[in-house]
Amino acid sequence: MSAKSKVELVHDHNHDGVDRRGFLKCMAWAGTGAFCIMQGGVLKSYSMSQMAQMAGKVGAGELSFVQISDSHMGFNKAANPDVVGTLKAAVDKVNALSTPAEFMLHTGDISHLSKPEEFDTVDQILKDAKPKDIFYVPGEHDMLNDDGKQYLERYGKNTKGGGWYSFDKKGVHFIGLVNVLNLKAGGLGTLGHDQLEWMEDDVKHLKSSTPIVVFAHIPLWSIYPEWGWGTEDSAQALAYLKKFGSVTVLNGHIHQTMQKVEGNVTFHTAASTAFPQPEPGKAPSPGPMKVPAEQLKSVLGITDVNYVHGQHALAVVDSSLA
Amino acid sequence: MSTAVLFAMTFGVAFAGMFAGAGSLPAAAQQTPGTTEVKIDNFSFGPAELKIPVGTTVTWTNRDDIPHTAVSTDKMFKSKVLDTDEKFSFTFSKPGTYEYFCSIHPTMTGKVVVQ
Asked: Mutating which of B44, B65, B102 best tests the A interface, going by the most A Cβ atoms within 10 A?
């Protein structure tokens, strides 16, 4: 499978430019290291070797970055007694990418219990990563006991409110959102009025051709509400992004990779560097999932994202630690 | 009366004497009046709905392999983060229905009905 030549998939039955059947086919291949790029509404799949060739040609106007997530520093139960080791393996993976990442995103649950030594350890380990700029958004495990005061002291410089912010890289606009504060009983993730207002204003004057990357901890699409895997007011945020031709949403929290394409928006969740969690509904609860020790690294991973100026969407590639 | 029965009765009295007022029995065998337990496991509170008399102290114990909290929706009580095997106790001195949830995993909810 991984040696397949370029295949164009054009089953556009809904006439909305989204090749659903092709998309499902692409998703089936994802586990083998193939991946899909949407170009002009058509899904194209490439094998890893083809991508390696293309990736080597990144030049000016092109952007390459990495997303890591859910390092849960401090976790030490059966599902992974060595989260330090697996985070270091993730850093090694980042450093070995054929196209060097210019910076990293960490989509939260940096620590497991919001302890200072846990944050310190992650900072120490990430110092060995080649990309020196790291942009964070908090997970619910990072805001324990103090409503996020410590997280903001460490990572909240130039952020607003609970830690949201935006920045630009090579013409791509990045928006870091916080959806783990003020969680209500029985509820999902929440962005809140202030943050939504800020976001509306933040994107108001951007040209619709500006590629947008939104990153937040809890998924901004409804994956499995029973387990809290969704954000109750994300529809409002996505409404503000309707005018843009390319929107990529990067999330964490669920400790497994998942992807959905809806019009111009590609939603993607990353694996954890600490422990996997079960697929929706496949276990009584979303807790840490134990796998045989020799399989652990194959269910943890990083996400590599590449943007080529002029392309319709960003190429999002997951790779496991082993 | 047979020797066996006499023997049992003597020991029965002796045993009762030993344990009266000692308060050292494990919780599973006999609960001190006024306390009750809620076990947190598998992302749920057990029992999810607890009915207790006024003055009872409820102790939440986390048996899950992930941290949880117990926070009342009306701000009456708020545990710190409980890692595996950590506990939090609260005494309910007023009658009423108290809904609570885990502030880290808010789909986890529970209720204490105090009568």
From this structure: B65
Full-model pTM: 0.81
Q: Clarify whether residues A175 and A238 are in a common domain.
A: yes
ipTM: 0.78
Locate B88 and state its tokens: 């939090």
**CATH code of the domain in which B92 resides:** 2.60.40.420
User: What is the number of structural domains in chain A?
Assistant: 2
Chain A residues in contact with B99 (beta carbon < 8 A): 185
The answer to whether A77 contacts B64, with C-beta atoms less than 8 Å apart, is no
Structure tokens given for A258 = 């998942």
**Which of A55, A73, A90 is the endpoint of a domain?**
A55
10-residue mean pLDDT series, chain A (322 residues)? 37 44 44 40 45 49 91 97 97 94 97 97 98 97 92 96 96 97 91 98 96 97 96 97 96 96 94 97 94 96 89 86 93
Residue B9 within any structural domain of the chain: no
In this complex, which of A79, A144, A184 lies closest to B81 when CB atoms are compared? A144
- What total of structural domains would you count in chain B? 1
> How far apart (Å, rounded) are the C-alpha atoms in residues A22 and A7?
10
At a CB cut-off of 8 Å and minimum separation 6, what does A273 contact? Answer: A68, A69, A70, A71, A83, A86, A87, A89, A90, A300, A301, A302, A321
